[in-house]
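B., you asked whether I could sanity-check this one before it goes into the benchmark set. Here's the sequence:
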Amino acid sequence: MELLCENMTRAFYVSAQETAKLYLTNHRTIEQIAKIRGLASSTIIHHLVMWYIATDDINPNDFVTRREQQYILVAMAKAKNYQYLSEIKAHLPEQITYEKIKWVIAKIHKISLR
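And here's what the prediction gave me:
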């Protein structure tokens, strides 16, 4: 698939594609992929989030439950400026991570692109 998201460089696209392939074909965890690729877990998540925005290959519900998504949406409504993840995080339980917030923002972004 040669869909190049407008905010992905070619090198990032190739790297994200390799990460997505490992996730989709081998059903590996984020930690396993990070170890295989020699990258930080946060980089792997960033790859997968961007791959989700560019394609329909990845399901964000694999990473954040519907209930967590609801909490995050409520927190976004409460945040003074939801462009800052820390403003959203301040309204959430500790177990909801920044990565989960990124998945919800990606879902919103993807819907706005349609």
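One thing to flag: The CA atoms of residues 20 and 48 lie 6 Å apart. Otherwise nothing jumped out at me.
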